[in-house]
Amino acid sequence: MSVRVATRGLRVATTNIYRKMSFGESPAKASMCCKEEVGGAPPTFAMYEALKDSCQNNATYFQPDDTENGQRLYQGFMTLIDHIDTVWPLVDHVRKVAPLYDLDAVSPGNGYRSFVSVVDSCVLHGLKLSRQVCTGRDTLLFRKGYFVREVESCGQLLASLGTCLHHLHTLLTWAPPGELFPSENHTPEELFATADTINQYCFYGRCLGFQFLPSMRGILKGISICMAGFSEAYYSHGNLISSVWTGGQYLLDPELRARRIVNISQSASVDFCKAFWFLAESEIMKRVPSLMSSTVAVNRVITIPPEPVTVPTLAGEALTVSPPTVHIGLQSLNLRLISVTKRTGMDSEATAPPADGIVFHCHGGGFVAQSSKSHEMYLRDWAAKLNVPILSVDYSLAPQAPFPRALEEVFYAYCWMLNNFKELGTTGKRIVFAGDSAGANLIAGCTLKLMEANLRQPGGLFMAYAPLLISFIPSPARLLCLMDPLLPFGFMMRCLKAYASPTPQGHPPGSNEKRITDKEQSLMSAATTPGESNGFLKISASQASMSVELGSFSEVSTSELGELQAHKSGSERRQSSDTTVSAELQSEHTATGFSPNEEMSQKCVSDFLEKYVLESDTESAKPSQRRDQSQREGESETSSTLVGEPPLLQDTVTDHKERKRIKTRISEAATGIMGAMSSRFAYITGSNNITRPTIDELAARTNLDALIVRSPSDEFIFSVPRDPYLSPYWADDELLKKFPPVRILTVHLDPCLDDCVMFARKLRRLGAAVSLDVLEGLPHGFLNFSLMAKEANEGSKLCVQRIKELLDLEAEAPTTNENTKL
């Protein structure tokens, strides 16, 4: 009896301690989550026990409640307790071994740590939710229905993370301690076959962004809603206006949003990824940097004609570098020069002397989208704080220009820069490469090419969240893309496929031949054996017919969406600065006519547009006149290509015919919104290949159990060539020994984190100078949000600091009053 009393007293005392503990809303820190207390128990153990205690308290409260919502709350909290008991031993083991995979004690970070922090963040989220129920359940305005859905979503989230932890335990057996990549040839299909499929829906619904910093959650939620709404316009005959209404549905219905995003990730083509990411260069967004970011004196596009460039080698010999011709033939190449001051050589009125340094930059975008314009938001800030010119390359984009086109263009642009330091306002004494995401991969590959050609190398490389192994090689960080709002699994796979897969022979870009469908491409890939170094990403035969089942995802041309914007900004385009974009869209779509379905009902709207819209925009200049005018423009500020913008029309197409076509598209958009408002539910289900459950199915479902998606392994099986220019991680040790100093910055929640850690470890083992910074709670691509979130801005400042170290410009006075130190 005395033992029972003592045990009961200890339990009550422990419960009181847990109740008094304060746990913040911020996600668990991956750099701290693997530390242990003196007693051997991790400090997060108390957090797990606190969640169990709170859930038990709520379960006891709602157990007598015989209402439907009351019983669902009781079951939801009991389910959470069961999931905690299941997850804790799994995450505890990963927590203990995770430090073995760090680069060093100064820069802790790897995919195992990241998943431990994600699970801890889920527990924090559940604890906050459970305590909200505890404090509000007795109030008059307590919303049982709302909290039922929240608690059940949290339980689904914890269950899915438990499945991920099973996968991590499998990965631990595939590689020796300290190695994040498998030592043997293991496929993702083999990994996912060892456990149940993962419910991806729970990551994009009510719990979206739980693992990120609070300042980023609203941004990520807004982007997800925009993605879902944009897909409505993209796949619904260009009804951009009506998509605003359906976007409200995704705001109010998180479950619908989750199904839509997962549907997009699994079914949308790479063209959708390109179009959505190009929103960063829309008419509105392209003005944001000039309003919110640092003011610069020089911001112009330099067009390099496709002519041979002769540069001296380190041995004193002359080397002639030919312009790239692979895949899309000879094309002009655009470079964007950004400088906070006008320096000698840049402008006839410049008074400042040339800078000693220059930053050679490559932008990110998954190899398929964006440009220097969309990255101008942080490039302006970098130029102001570094006080050196920045030269950014607008390389050609996949899938029209897959590997190695972009790499050859970056190499060619660098050689051109070596001969034109004076025009760029620099002496060229110090050169630093900088790139984020796909751009970081390209500057690493360019450095290897410079070594092979025996040309001058940069003084250092700065790489942000770099994909250095272009493959879905099973690693813990790669699994993070299953829950990433900005880089979902399907997006990442299709981008890598578009870049790593060569263009099929016989269908050069720009031809009028029938395009190879996704199904045909899949069958071609599946017919290739893994041993062949053909660069294809293989798709399993069981999914070969998937592309014909996409419904509305394959019904509408992507060029239709951007026609309104294309003609609105027709007088602002430059043929030279938009060479890459125009070429890639020309290969996808042709300027065909369109027959309206409701011509009579659109007549009034058409007359209005004829009088007040089209006359002022499309009749201002004929296409040939617009091209002549655009060639005389020196700045790119008014020449950025908008989303889905088609190539310039041929002179043989009359203005009248084109105006009628555009007028029809605008009329259809106006009619579409009225149809959407009259039957919004039918619009959502009818326009996007998402099947709503029947009434009987809704009655049987109490959570997302019936929405478990198929395993990602059913979609993609990778087989890419082991080419060091494609994946710099595979470069020969003798070349990596000669690498210039490298500064790598990434985030704990990046699917490419393990690439950065293993590449840094390899460089350090070979004696090269390398450092690694891993930031907390930020997403892949956070630099694009440096003006929206404080932590992202702090991360951008750290980038500036690392580039300064490579430029050796710490002693140079800053040009602004801002403190660039963290």
TrEMBL record:
The UniProt record lists the Alpha/beta hydrolase fold-3 domain at 359-508, 722-783
Spell out where the chain crosses the membrane: none
Where is the stretch described as Disordered? 562-599, 615-660
Residue stretches of biased makeup (Polar residues): 577-599
Q: Where is the composition biased (Basic and acidic residues)?
A: 565-576, 625-635
According to the entry, every stretch annotated as the Hormone-sensitive lipase N-terminal domain falls at 47-347
Q: Which InterPro entries match?
A: AB_hydrolase_3, AB_hydrolase_fold, HSL_N
Q: Read off the PANTHER family from this record.
A: HORMONE-SENSITIVE LIPASE (PTHR23025:SF3), TRIACYLGLYCEROL LIPASE (PTHR23025)
According to UniProt, the name of this protein is Hormone-sensitive lipase
Q: Which organism is it from?
A: Plutella xylostella
Taxonomic lineage: Eukaryota, Metazoa, Ecdysozoa, Arthropoda, Hexapoda
